Amino acid sequence: MSDDAVLLNDELWERLLELTGGDVALCYQCGECTAACPWGMVREKGLPVRLVLRQAQLGIENTGAELWLCTTCGLCQATCPRGVDIPAVFRALRQLAWEQNRVEKGLPSMLWSLYWNSNPWSQPPSTRSAWAGNLNLETFDPARHEVLLYVGCTSSYNRRAQKIARALVTLLQKAGVSFGYLGDDEPCCGESALSIGNQPYFEEIAAHTSQVFIEKGITRLMTISPHCYDVFKNHYQEVPPGWQPLHYTQYLAELVDQDRLVFPHPLDFQVTYQDPCYLGRLNEEYEAPRRILKALPGIELVEMTDNRQAGLCCGGGGGRMWLETPASERFAELRVAQALNTGADHLVTACPFCLSCLEDSASALSRALPVLDIAELAVQAIGERS
Ligand code: SF4
Ligand code: SF4
After folding, report:
1. Which residue, 370, 385, 359, 380, is CA-closest to 298?
2. Could you say which of 70, 99, 128 is where a domain stops?
3. Looking at the structure, do residues 127 and 29 belong to the same domain, yes or no?
4. Which atom of ligand 2 is nearest to the CA of 72?
5. Lesser CB count within 10 Å: N end or C end of the chain?
6. Which ligand is nearest to the CA of 67?
7. 47 lines ligand 2 (CB under 6 A)
8. 377 and 350 in a common domain
9. What is the per-residue pLDDT for 10?
10. Residue 52 belongs to what domain range?
11. Distance (Å, rounded) from C-alpha 248 to C-alpha 347?
12. Can you give the CATH number for the domain in which 73 is found?
């Protein structure tokens, strides 16, 4: 047999069929996915999505670095005529890579931190609620609180994202919402393990976290990160009866509609909005953030060319937050350029990962474009500092 012969692996094909619920078989190789993938805008070779699918169908093992490029943004899936869940195919291929210990540098240490610290940020669990300082937050009690504020690892530990959490607390208090949180006992949602394809470890985390929610009588919760929201809504198997995870923009939009949250302090900004992939494309929530923005007096919303279902990913999903991306390959730089083209004086979003990637890129481009979370902007409109 020639050295160039390709060995087809039926066993691998069977596994992929099982892991993707049959989705991998649906692909008919049109190539729309490769054309849609944002990697084509920042890398000469792009990300050969169609080829990845073809190799998977032939049972050829994928050992290439492209396996770890996918941000699971879902843009390819939105254009796929066969509706293939392409991010799920990447996660399945990553799962096989974990089984063979073939993973990108940076991911095992993140996973170890999940294991030892219950967060991917390598921070001690005992400081999880340090962000709340002297806010005097109450521990969740189903008899007294209408909703749980699920802060998530990023807004608990990342200094920039902590400001979102504090802004949201101010808004909830202003609206008179009775809410509680879990302090240092808040468990991780597990999304970081899921997105890098470590499904077995994700399932362990999810089982533990579900149990905590069940024991504490939690049914309605709001998350700060769309990644936590997505995982609670779409990937948890065992959930308490009446389970209702919400993203905080959905909760705030409800408060606005009920006139519980009013904004008396006019602002004078023109803003453009980055749809986080995990809120927009993956969960079809495009309107709640815009309803909040439209309720802020003096705010004019101008849309970027790519918005809603066509929104461009910030580059931080699918585990890319834990991997190095060369400056020339950051989607966020393209997004900041799109935002500047609108003439807006602020770029707003509703996701800690988007905030981090976009702010880094705005500063790398030395552009005076403040990047804010919607909660931070809304706090200014109630006359408080964010
Ligand atoms: S767009 Fe869908 S059908 Fe076309 S190559 Fe990609 S995965 Fe296959
Ligand atoms: S999910 Fe996004 S990053 Fe991944 S292959 Fe599709 S378009 Fe590219």
Report:
1. 380
2. 99
3. no
4. 1
5. N
6. 2
7. yes
8. yes
9. 84
10. 10-99
11. 18
12. 1.10.1060.10
Position 5 pLDDT exceeds 80 = no
Q: By alpha-carbon position, which residue is closest to atom 8 of ligand 1?
A: 27
pTM of the full structure: 0.96
Ligand nearest to the CA of 50: 1
My answer on whether 285 and 372 are in the same domain is yes
**How many CB atoms sit inside 10 A of residue 246's CB?**
21
Taking the centre of ligand 2 as the mean of its atom positions, its distance from the CA of residue 69, in whole angstroms, is 8
* One domain, residues 295 and 181: no
Q: Establish if 109 belongs to a structural domain.
A: no
3-state secondary structure of 299: strand
Residue 375, domain CATH = 3.40.50.10700
CB 207 within 8 A of CB 137: no
* Alpha carbon of 90 to ligand 2 centroid (Å): 9
Based on the fold, state whether residues 313 and 290 are members of the same structural domain: yes
Q: End of a domain among 239, 255, 271?
A: 255
pLDDT digits (tens, 9 = 90+) for 71-124: 999 999 999 999 999 999 999 999 999 999 999 999 999 999 999 999 999 999
Q: Whose CA is nearest to atom 1 of ligand 1?
A: 80
Residue 36 CA: which ligand 2 atom is closest? 7
Answer yes or no: is 56 within a domain: yes
Q: Mark whether 120 and 235 lie in a shared domain.
A: yes
Point out the ligand nearest to the CA of residue 282: 2
| CA 73 / ligand 2 centre spacing (Å) | 5
The alpha carbon of 87 and the centre of ligand 1 are apart by a number of angstroms equal to: 12
Nearest atom in ligand 1 to 79's CA:
1
- Token pair of 38, please? 């944002």
Residues 207, 275, single domain; the answer is: no
Structure-token pair, residue 370? 């403040």
Q: How far is the CA of 39 from the centre of ligand 1 (A)?
A: 16
Residues 72 and 130 in one domain: no
Which amino acid is it at 262? Answer: V
Q: Count the domains in the chain.
A: 3
On the question of pLDDT at 373 being above 60, the answer is yes
Atom 5, ligand 2: which residue's CA is nearest? 70
Ligand that lies nearest to the alpha carbon of residue 54, given by its number in the listed order: 1
Beta bridge partners of 221: 148, 245
How many angstroms separate the CA atoms of 187 and 209, rounded?
A: 6
